[in-house]
Amino acid sequence: MSSADPSEPLLLLIEDNRDTLVAAGRLLETSGFRVEIARGGQDGIAKASRLRPDVIVTDLVMPVTSGYTVCKQLREGRTTRHIPVIVYTGESSASALAPLYGLGVRLFAIKPCVPTVLGQEAHALLATRLSEVRIVTGYGETLDDLAAQVEASEELAHPNR
Prior knowledge:
- The chain has 161 residues and is of the alpha/beta class.
- It is built from 6 helices and 7 strands.
- Strands 2-1-3-4-5-6-7 form a 7-stranded mixed beta sheet, with helices on both faces.
- α1 (18-30) crosses α5 (115-128) and α4 crosses α6.
- The termini are far apart.
């Protein structure tokens, strides 16, 4: 699926739903990324280690290897720990997202989120290397209250980080 322009950043899209994978992948390409796809968590972890993409977008709820496991293994990997990760999910509770904050995830895109908005957010993440949590939904609205809850939940659970 990857386009041939090596000047575009490489984005690894990890998703178990084939239709979402194809549609989001194509739209992310039109947003200025070379896109590699991974069908599920294990494939995503292997490709991340091999390809060392500029940014990773992963679904959270996947069979066999969940997005939580993907984020944990990426954070523990010597060659992958620095790669920014965006979680693209239908989950929007602070309790579900807070553990990912502890794994370095700073950008959450809540489904349904237009892939072109996801592409814009991915470019912004690469440009700024976000330090705070940012949550976007739908057509780019931000959920600042939920982001604050995610940060607070994780900080209360692990006060010495």
